[in-house]
Design brief:
The chain is of the alpha+beta class and about 140 residues long. Helices cover about 45% and strands about 20% of the residues. A five-stranded mixed sheet has the order 1-2-3-4-5.
């Protein structure tokens, strides 16, 4: 299985996954869709020991809605999305990240079934959203 740093919705795979065993990389397949279920950017990677790293940050609600086809991809909506992305980029350049970034490590992947691994990641995302919910409305 060849893993490239491509996006599955808003779940991103980082190049550090090369440190993870092929069997454990296959276990991530249930986790790809998590970025489509939550309004977060999720980065899956690995430590040099092959443990899974999960980085979570908030994303713009507009990006979440458009990528997941929850609003129609009309010319006007895409233009507004691109404008929103440029404004978000300028905000990051001036003030830094708008939302906090959390990083966690999930160890012992050899003993975790693939469907259970997705639940571990989902619980990390839900904890993040619960902790920082007050920031998402601003």
């Amino acid at each position: 299985m060849n893993i490239n740093p491509i996006s599955f919705g808003q779940t991103y795979l980082t190049p550090s996954l090369k440190y993870m065993s092929p069997d454990n990389r296959r276990k991530l397949k249930y986790s790809y869709a998590l970025g489509q279920l939550y309004p977060n950017d999720i980065y899956l990677g690995a430590t040099k020991h092959g443990d899974l790293t999960v980085q979570i940050t908030g994303t713009s609600i507009y990006k979440h809605l458009l990528i997941n086809n929850l609003i129609p991809a009309t010319k006007n909506n895409v233009s507004l999305y691109l404008l929103n992305e440029k404004l978000e980029q300028r905000h990051r350049e001036i003030y830094g990240p708008k939302y906090p970034i959390t990083k966690s490590v999930i160890k012992y992947l050899d003993y975790i079934p693939e469907d259970t691994l997705a639940h571990y990641i989902a619980s990390e995302i839900e904890e993040y959203n619960h902790k920082y919910a007050h920031l998402f409305s601003s």
